[in-house]
Protein 1
Amino acid sequence: MGRIIRNNYANDALLKELMTAPPMTAEQHAEIMRKRIAHRRMVEEAKELKTASEDRFAEE
């Protein structure tokens, strides 16, 4: 499986909309970061479980 590459240029928002939007609060930023970290941990744990199960099959 290849790596998924995120397209950073796929946002159709106008520059004026982006520049005039109110800034994110610290609470909003913290919540986004918590979700991002939780998702990353979930992916890492899934990879570890997959590797561990592959190792078990290789030993038999």
Protein 2
Amino acid sequence: MSAIPFIAGTASASETNGYGTGSYGIGAYGGETGSETDTGTDSETDGTDTSEPSLENTIRFDGIGTSDVSEYEFTVTGTVEKSRDGGASINEEDTIDGNRVTGSLTGWRDAFRFSGDLDTLTVTGQARVYVNGNRVDPADYGGEQSQVVTIVGNGTYSEYQLTSDGSVEVIEGDDVTVASEGRAEGSIERGVHRLRLTGELVDFTFLEGGTQVYLENQRIDPADYSGDVTLPHVIVFDGTDASGPTNYSFTVDGRVSQSEYLGATIDESDSLDGATVTGVVGVGERDAYRFDGSIVDFSSAGEANVNVEYDASL
């Protein structure tokens, strides 16, 4: 049997921000909704801005109308420095390391002037981004815009699990764990759990109890999030030509679920424990599993053929 290739994952920086147990609702965003045009130039000369024509481009992060911290990181192919364009403030905590910039803002604006091209861009939070006055999507620059799910304890013991079609990271909370790349589970009675999703929230289920859940600043009804995720890769254990049963076990570093791919059967005796699968495929039968990430451990004893298809059809 040939070696099974591995797929690298991604991670994002963590953030901290306290939540109480009161209302979170935020209305419409302030500021621009599509594109905007700069109407002036800065007259201040404090050493952080520049009027040199070589820094011909601007990038502005606009957090007006948001209440949570937004974090950002970007790189350019030229040089970069802080700016007051569009009424932005100069934040000493924002850092410039060569052509790479990292920073954060809450409820206001950060801006920079740069030469060359914007190479990469990642934003965590609700801040909007404008390049040369035009709103842009971080995904167009190889980045991603994540969102935060907040679970607020109300004194009732509650157990929950959530699924994203991207990755999940725990920001805050003692009794919450990431069970696999896109799935987390936890229990809460009081306090706050916060999790960052790089994809969409697909499913949120209370296994016991129930309490308030927020997606960014908006309270949501978990019943509205009850979809299924179709994982991209498939592993098939094919016992069609085998003379006896085949025992198998494998582990992935992402998510995994049973599948009926290529006519495979769902066998309740096969075991899924987090990201580890243990099972037996009988003579003339097929077992199949969809997964994402990479297979990090594998064993098989028997004559069944094993096939792995990456980016398999539905």
Protein 3
Amino acid sequence: MTIWTNLLLALFAGVLLNLTPCVLPALPIKLRTIARVVGSGTRQRFLAAIALLAGTLSFFGALALATAMLNWTWGTLFQAFWFRAALAFLLAGLGVYSLAGRGVQPPQWVYRVQGNGYAEPYLAGFLAAVLSAPCTGPFLGGVMAFALTQAPSTIFALFMAVGVGLALPYLVLLARPRLLTRIPRGGAWLSRVQQVMGLILLAGATFFATTVLAERVGTLLWTAWLGTLAFWLIRALVVGPGFGARLVPALVLVAGVAGAVTLGFDRGAGAQRALPWQPLTERALAEARTASAPVLVEFTADWCINCKVLEQTVYADAAIAQAVDAAQMRVLRADLTRPDAALDAYLRSFGGAGLPFAVVLKPSGTVHRRLPDLFTVSTLKAAIETSGEQTRVDP
């Protein structure tokens, strides 16, 4: 494909990144940014849109330079312990601030530096870009794999296109806010929505904190978050002033119960089964070739939210385990939570450029199918079932 085709794909991939779990913790700040200026004049909305785009592109610009000059892959920054810890602290601070009813906004000194209150949309764009970095979305894996083979100027252009795509839906809302103007801008119900957003931010903070702390501490943090959620639900349902204020926690409760029942039903029905994962090593690959066995390799990391989604859904599905057994397939896992030059070299050699990424190898050891980004059970099952065939099905 040409560079122009990849630029369009990068733009589209950036838009689709908004639908991935990775950027969910940034949603509260983006929504608050839009809500604050939705009733303002054209000039204020235009400046807010420019600030949001500038925040997004400033991170992607720095990431593009690091990729071109330091040979980084998508998500390398999250391998740094200090970065994940700092992000956890940031999300926790914003979450507490929002849960307390103060909204999601930077400290006042930031406003004095930036002026006119446009630091908040800048922060919204920047944080969304940061949170998109650990995971890839649809089309993004192929675009990044192409970018790593190009000149620095092309890498920079592709990363900028992804950034524009990530910010584009919110830029459109800021430019055409007619539908949003019908939403009430105040009231007790809006305070409850703001608190829900705070809980989402705290969940994001807890997730990243568990990647830098001991497993036991991580369990305690999730227990504390669930306790906070339960306390908030009880208090909001009991003392909520008015129907609207009680409706928000009621909807949260219904969604939580429905999700728990669905998850419990799937597990109770035996719909999940763990795969016999082994670490990815040269010896494991050699043994698979000697045994003429196909191989499934998963590249993952503790900080990759999309990877965890795949592991709890696709990889845990009993149909995948049955297909693996039928194909007599070896399943190997590469953990890129921390920097690992050997595993990173494998990722590149198989055509990957970010996480999540999986590859199905033929018995000969050659690539049969690459699976970047998020994918379904049926997609992986088909790749496993055809892994012994001679025809190449890799897109």
